[in-house]
Amino acid sequence: MASTTDPNHISRVALIGATGSLGSNVLSALLAQSYPQFSITSDTHPDLTSDPRITIIPGSYTDHWFLVSALANQDALIITLAWSICHEFQPLIIRAACEAKVPYILPCEFGSDTSNPRLISAVPMQTHKVNARKPVEELGGTSSCWIGIINNAWYDWSLAGGWFGIDIKHRKATLFDKGDVKAYTSTLRMSDLAAARVLSLPLNTKGQNPNNPNMHRTLPSYANKMVYVSNFHLSQVDMLRAVQQATHTTDADWDITAVSKAEYIEAGFTMLKKGEMSGIMNVLYGNIFTNGVANGYYGAEGNENPQLAQDNAMLGLEGCEDLEDVTGRVVREVLEGRDTQQHQ
């Protein structure tokens, strides 16, 4: 837990993008960690002001001096802007954060492992995330660093939206090839907890329990590195079985078809060339189920990354979600017609 009087922990966290699905839940996770903090937003949101620890500073993301002033004296910054605007505003925010000497910057990663060059080659629209980290390394010097939260596709958000190829409402499933490639997935809640808990790590090991196997894990130890977390390791077939269990159905109740994954991804690129931005989902999710690309965490070296188990354990995230419970909740939300697709 972070404390306002504990010199071994940070205490002031700025959050940009606090009102969307990701940002609002990150805010809740931060509040649970006892940070005094503020949110920066371009509009006022009275519903956020009920907690005395939150200060809202309205302003424009294109106003450099506003950002520098607002970020002054902050210990950390988390950016959770929507993908549709992140590539435009995040570089401006990061440059201001470096000028304000914010020690820890969590850019808008919260997805696949963009340190993997095979992923960037296969999904070039993720390049903006790589580019966002470079100014921190170039301008931050010893004053600022970045920390990336890597959680791969959100299981609950993606399942509800049909992005895994499973249409719950109409009982249709589209499997890529055999649908047997397993991929790491996380819930939105897992992403939120990971961000809050990594920032609650101590600044040094002084006073830590020497018998704690994670005592060497400090916040500075993650400087310019990724944090890898995941709830589930599932194939499309695994996901379909989970949904069938929740709906008390079998294959006989579903329209199940198989498509070429390569053709599915290529169709996405064709859509993008025509200006149909929804094609990005074909590219992203086709590659989520492609070995060596976005199904796992491979890092810069392209090898399976053992850090996942270590980070899950170190942050106390092992077993924090139950597949049956999460799937059941998603199924209920979809069948009740709730809108679960707001990202920001």
Automatic annotation (TrEMBL):
Q: What SUPFAM superfamilies does the record tag this protein with?
A: NAD(P)-binding Rossmann-fold domains
- Gene3D superfamilies found in the cross-reference section: NAD(P)-binding Rossmann-like Domain
Name the UniProt key words of this record, in alphabetical order.
Answer: NADP, Oxidoreductase
The answer on whether this UniProt entry bears the keyword NADP reads yes
Name of this protein: NmrA-like domain-containing protein
The NmrA-like domain extends over 11-142
What's one Pfam family the UniProt record gives for this protein?
NmrA
InterPro entries found in the cross-reference section: NAD(P)-bd_dom_sf, NmrA-like, NmrA/Isoflavone_reductase-like
Example GO molecular function term?
oxidoreductase activity
Q: Output the superkingdom of the source species.
A: Eukaryota
